[in-house]
Amino acid sequence: MKLNQKQIQHIANLARLELTEEELKKYSNQLSDILSYINQLKEADTTNVEPTAQVTGMENIFREDTVEEWDKDEIEVALEQAGELEDGQVKVGRVLA
Questions:
Q1: Would you list the domain boundaries of the chain?
Q2: What local confidence, expressed as pLDDT, does residue 51 receive?
Q3: Which of 26, 44, 58, 60 is the most buried (most CB within 10 A)?
Q4: Burial class, 28, CB count within 10 angstroms (exposed 0-12 / middle 13-18 / buried 19+)
Q5: What does the alpha-carbon distance between residue 17 and residue 6 come to, in Å, rounded to a whole number?
Q6: 5-41 has which CATH code?
């Protein structure tokens, strides 16, 4: 599959990349080669292959989410280590993405 410069520029814009004309030509060939290779993989016979997301055999291990009560001394020690408190709770700065 051959990508043209307009398609490469669109992909670059989506990735917030500013590419020079030289880079557009270079990446056009490289991405086209990658897509051609992926098209070759589509030709592989996978009729008897079970779909999988990973092959290591690892599994998620879940545990029950339980609330553990702390005694008052433990709470006081923990809150003493906080930088700033507001209404008995730890106050932190805003986290903005």
A1: 5-41
A2: 84
A3: 26
A4: buried
A5: 14
A6: 1.10.20.60
Q: What is the pLDDT of residue 67?
A: 92
Residue pointed to by tokens 């992909």: 11
pLDDT band at 5 (very low <50, low <70, confident <90, very high): confident
Q: Rounded to an integer, what distance in angstroms lies between the CA atom of residue 68 and that of residue 77?
A: 16
Query: What are the pLDDT digits (tens) for 18-42?
Result: 989 898 888 888 988 999 999 998 8
The number of beta carbons lying within 10 Å of the beta carbon of residue 72 is 7
Looking up tokens 């930088």, which residue turns up? 83
Which contacts (CB < 8 Å, 24+ apart) does range 5-9 have?
none
Q: Is 68 exposed, middle or buried (0-12, 13-18, 19+ CB in 10 A)?
A: exposed
Say how far apart CA 4 and CA 55 lie, in whole Å.
36
pLDDT tens digits for range 40-61: 988 899 899 888 877 888 888 8
